[in-house]
Amino acid sequence: MSEQGASGPRLSSPSWRFSIRTMLIAMAVIGACIPLGGYALRHASTWIGSFVFLVTTMLLAGMVCLAFNRQGESRAYWTGAAIFGIAYFLVGGDPWSQPYNYELITETISNAAYNQFFPEGASTTQPEATDPPPVPSPIPPGGEQLDDSAVADSNADSGANPVPDPPSLRDFVMVAHMYWSLLFAFVGGWVSLLMYWTGKRQAADS
Fold first, then answer.
1. Which whole number is the average pLDDT over 16-37?
2. CB 78: neighbour CB atoms within 10 A?
3. Which of 5, 121, 160, 177 could bond 92 through an S-S bridge, CB–CB 3.0 to 4.6 Å?
């Protein structure tokens, strides 16, 4: 009897080997996404929200294409990523939750994050008009007239740098939903890959 028959069919363990190049690319992508994501959330607006929405849509569509054009473990990963990502993308758009009057837990977390980072909230009223700072006289008490550049520097120093207003809650949550879609896609890919590995093991044991 052969060695394979005596010990049963051999099933190769899941491949966890990653090349250094792949690890460096993954680290670079993660390192770029963190500051870009933070910037988009901090400066969330209609334009930034539309751009993030478009990028997320294209990424999810690319996952579908990868799922159709890959085989084996790669296909399993991208299939799960596409299904989980698109599922949350559709549900997070909130077309069905309104009739049932409920809020997704991810939206609750996003609202809590907004209140934590921007406790003052977005300004909804126009600030009261204030008198402009006094313009220094070009003739100082000493009697010597200042040139135009000195007057301009004095005017610049008299005005404080304005603090940017926080983004609106609606724009912040909209951008957050797009990032939640990509996060669910990432997790869903690994869930699908785990199912693929367990399915192969059960098929080999049967």
1. 68
2. 24
3. 177
